[in-house]
Amino acid sequence: MQVHELPRRPNPNLDHIPGDYGLPVIGHTFGLLRNSHKVGKRMLDTYGPVFRSSALFQRSVGLVGPEAARFVLLDGEQNFAAEPAWNLIIGGLFEGGLLLKDFSDHRFHRRALQHAFKKPVLGAYCTSLNRYLAEGIGTWPVNSYFDLFPRLKGLLLENAIQSFFGEDPHCNIQELSRAFIAMLDATLTLVRKPLPGSKWRRGMAGREVIKAYLKDQIQLRKNNPGNDFLSSLCVASDEAGQLTDDDIIDHMIFLLFAAHDTTTSTLSSATRILCRHPEWQERLQREFTGVQGEHLSMEDFTALPELDWFFKEVLRMHPPVPGITRRTVKELEFGGYTLPANTSVLVSIRLMHYLPEHWIKPEEFDPERFSPERAEHKRDSFQWLPFGGGAHKCLGLHFAEMQTKVFLFQLLRRFSVSLQPGHVPKIRAVPLEMPKNGLRIALAPV
């Protein structure tokens, strides 16, 4: 069976696999939206590392552990398809993105996109990122409590638009930001029809706004490329000779989604942790004193080991994407169970990051577990996977690392951060981990 022939919504018989489907029709949907980690942990403890479940009107098989991740993500025999799995979540809005491509088609597009992540582009972005984040953080209130989340989200979105689309004096960043936010809001709706006044209709309209802007820019960037992602992809398309303008548009919209939302999630988690562990604010601030000047360069990263440990531990405890989904192309065997063709499979990254057989006291925040002396993450090459693995491993992982580390440098070299007393952030874990009741903090000069 070819991938494109898979029915859009799978419904195989999974009763031979341990587990349960939860409530009629809706399954575990409400529990998933409230606390997906708690639901997954209960399923793992009750049924083991292979279990059946149901949520969001779809039956699926959950797989937990490095061996399961290796089995699904390496996939040398092309047994698992990403497009039909992710299409139910982000299809339509982010059509044509790299995550929604498989096998030879995926390899071709990934090679083209790699041109846009060359070191000169990343270096130019690092320079502008320092300046932009320093200016943005400098506008935030000092010595008074405010909700960090919308300010962080807006700052990173405007920066991503400028960095990905380039310095365009005629670009209406606010209009593009509103259009993109409408697309993000639409991913959370279960009604995926363009009904009047619906989130889906507004999301699709937002996509058309961004498409129109990019369509006007592509030929300009081909004729006069700069050091931005759009220009790099336009040049790569000419070198490859096969990427169409529509391909470029689809990839740019998806890259904006992948880079912005995941980094917003990571930095929200990092800030919450810094508030709970002020000793790590002090450790990072001491380490930053060794950086010459007011900007953090790519060359500085290797001289900041504690920043790297902190970054990795944040992603272990709070991976922005809690799981990786695929669909089986044919019948398979794993863990002693048969996975029918067209089965939705979810590899839980967050559950794997808390397995006590791989991590010492996994519920505790402990960045030193990533130090050379302990190196817990090296016990198995597939036990720490915030960026996925195999052919679909996140292409922008160095880009995400740069964003996060530059932000922490620009924040902590000037301020200490504290959580407002009585404020308990509540976390929404689906589709990405985000604070759903805000993140109220205060900044104090150091």
Write the layout of secondary structure elements.
Blueprint: H1 29-47, E1 50-55, E2 58-63, H2 66-74, E3 80-81, H3 83-90, H4 103-114, H5 119-137, E4 146-147, H6 148-165, H7 173-186, H8 199-223, H9 229-240, H10 245-276, H11 278-288, H12 305-317, E5 323-328, E6 332-334, E7 337-339, E8 344-348, H13 349-352, H14 397-412, E9 415-419, E10 427-428, E11 434-435, E12 440-445
Parallel strand pairs: 2-8
Antiparallel strand pairs: 1-2, 3-5, 4-12, 5-8, 6-7, 9-12, 10-11
Helix pairs in contact: 5-6, 5-14, 6-7, 6-10, 7-8, 8-9, 8-10, 10-11, 10-12, 10-14
Total separate domains: 1
Shape: globular
β-strand amount? 5-15%
Number of E-type strands: 12
Give the N-to-C terminal Cα separation. Answer: 62 Å
**Average of pLDDT:** 92
- The ordered string of helix (H) and strand (E) elements is HEEHEHHHEHHHHHHHEEEEHHEEEE
Which descriptors apply to this entry?
globular; Cytochrome p450; 446 residues; alpha+beta; single chain; five-stranded mixed β-sheet
Any overview of this molecule?
The protein has helices spanning 29-47, 66-74, 83-90, 103-114, 119-137, 148-165, 173-186, 199-223, 229-240, 245-276, 278-288, 305-317, 349-352, 397-412, and strands at 50-55, 58-63, 80-81, 146-147, 323-328, 332-334, 337-339, 344-348, 415-419, 427-428, 434-435, 440-445. The longest helix has 32 residues, at 245-276. It has a 5-stranded mixed beta sheet with strand order 1-2-8-5-3, sandwiched between helices. The mean pLDDT is 92. Strand 10 and strand 11 (434-435) form a beta hairpin. The N and C termini lie far apart (62 Å). The protein is of the alpha+beta class and 446 residues long. It has a single domain, classed as Cytochrome P450 (Cytochrome p450), CATH 1.10.630.10. Helix 6 packs antiparallel against helix 10, helix 7 (173-186) crosses helix 8 and helix 10 crosses helix 12.
